[in-house]
Amino acid sequence: MSDGSASMARRSPVGPRAAVARTDSRHPTVASEPSGEARNSTVDRALRVLEAFLGEESQIGVLELSRQLDLDKSVIHRILSTLVARRFIEQDPVSRRYRVGLRIWELGQRYLAGQLLKDVAEKELTRMIAAHPYATAYLAQLDGGDVVVISTIRGPGPINLYMDPGSRLIAEHTTTGRTLLAFLPPVKADQIVARRRQAGGSIRQFPDIDEVRADFAAIRERGFGESQGRYSPGVNTVAVALCDQDGSPILALSVDYLGFPETEGLGRILPRELQDCVRRIERLVRASGADTDS
User: Fold this and answer.
1) Percentage of residues in the chain with pLDDT exceeding 90?
2) Distance between CA atoms of residues 253 and 111, nearest Å
3) Topology adopted by domain 42-106
4) Percent of the chain, pLDDT > 70?
5) Sorting pLDDT into bands at 50, 70 and 90, what band is 87?
6) Is the dihedral of CA 253, 258, 262, 268 positive or negative?
7) What is the CATH code for 5-17+111-287?
8) pLDDT of residue 24 exceeding 70
9) End-to-end alpha-carbon separation of the chain, Å?
10) Is 25 within 8 Å of 167 (Cβ atoms)?
11) CB of 237 within 8 A of CB of 173?
């Protein structure tokens, strides 16, 4: 993922034996218990009611919830009434007790589909990058005006670039971020870029917005983003977007490679290989019964 100078501390050239510190995305930091006003908010109370259904009992009554959560029965009843109306919770017509509703199942399916998409994409990128020394593949997604690394997959070496999963970069300062922004509706992309610029935090000067828009148009026309040393000297990048059924970008698949004589032909090969990866991922996800609209 080609990035600006602000992010260079996160990228390290590493050899086969180099020790690389990384963030393990499989073990996220546990959020602390909310306190004070946040804990007493209506939203927090509703979420605590939903969390109560994670226990062994498949159905729970108002009195049990009131004792378990230390909330008044009237508060519990109001929350349950709203959750039932929104179909997150159902009430058994016989026992009058409550159980998980259809909306919770639907959200769970969305989560599983997203995990499946990530797993399939990682496997396809791992297979592809294995043929390319001096290269590293990434999965990334937009978070507002930033692009966040989801997965990092090193090629066979002997030297690769490496960025920790969880690294966050200003999207318009990266080939990968621009590729994702390019496939958003132009007005939305402009809004995201403008808000991110107002937030600041970049040691690089933001380019003229017309130059950025022209780059977005070029990416859309050819179907991929590319750069050769544009953001980091000696680092070349190719990126493609995996989009949902409406054409909105979900993930970016990208490859960084060092500008060595041994990698001279990668700029011609990688666009096709990454686009083939996207097509295979879409086929595999559809075959699983899920979809890329998650």
Assistant:
1) 63
2) 20
3) Arc Repressor Mutant, subunit A (1.10.10)
4) 83
5) very high
6) positive
7) 3.30.450.40
8) no
9) 24
10) no
11) no
